[in-house]
Amino acid sequence: MYSLLKKYITDQSTISEADLKLIFSCFKPIETKRNEILIDFDTICNYYYFINKGSLRLYTLNTDGTENSRYFAFEGMFCTALPSFIDQKPAAEYLQTIEKCELLVISRTDFYKLIDQFPAFDSLYKRILELGFITAQQRIYSFQGNNALEKLKWIIKNQPHFLLRVSNKMAASYLGISPSTLSRIKSQL
């Protein structure tokens, strides 16, 4: 149950088996259904999720009800509504399972205790934040001024498993194009 999390942590830093056991004791395994909402728009986020199996997405809704996917996470990744998790204000976004998932969940309280107690976990958190920032910046820079085909090529190059795991509707909302445009440009590849 904890082997993927162990690999994630030990790939980032050196840590003893005893410390790993203490860290694992703070994570609780849960299984979810497909399309389950883990964090609702107007709730405060108190949990961080590590994905053993499945995938999650963060998204918002426009006033007309159109979904805008902001982030996708897959096996071996952490995911949460980070601004709400940090500042304890309503999430202003949704966190949803897009496949049946096996997750390891840690409470905000336990998460910050681990950061204080284990320098390796603090380093891990900094790395999560850095990678999140880099990914967001790359996406912004790659999508600004690019046409739909160039955006799709960026996704294929940088996240090759993405289109195999995510519906056309969700992928289109992430790319900022319509599902019909996505279908049309996929046929051009």
Automatic annotation (TrEMBL):
InterPro entries for this protein: cNMP-bd_dom (IPR000595), cNMP-bd_dom_sf (IPR018490), RmlC-like_jellyroll (IPR014710)
Reading the lineage from the top rank, the first entry is: Bacteria
Kindly list any coiled-coil regions of this protein: none
Q: Which residues form the Cyclic nucleotide-binding domain?
A: 13-115
Query: What name does the UniProt record give this protein?
Result: Crp/Fnr family transcriptional regulator
Source organism per entry reads Flavobacterium pygoscelis
